[in-house]
Prior knowledge:
Shape: globular
CATH topology: Alpha-Beta Plaits
Number of domains: 1
Number of helices: 3
Structural class: alpha+beta
CATH architecture: 2-Layer Sandwich
Amino acid sequence: MYLVTFRLDPGEYDEEFHKLNDAIQATAEDTDGYLGKRTWNAQESEEVLVIYYWKSLDALGSFGADSDHKQAKQRWTEWYDAYEVTVTEVVEAYGSGFGADADPPA
């Protein structure tokens, strides 16, 4: 499994951002190998972390080739003050007490 951590400092979102963002999320959900996402908001700042779960690098690469996704990456300065993407391979995951939240979100 692979995790893509999208760390962002939001700027101003307009109608075009929301349309593009919704299209990108729909594409992710339709991509074979997409396992889900979780979002966290920092209490002390406006920083947001979105963790996307992927079955394989091939699945992630397929999503990355999407034209809407490419367009959003080129236009990031219109909507974010800063961003960072980290791709991580999960070697092992374990724990207890989160119930259904212990697994990647569906």
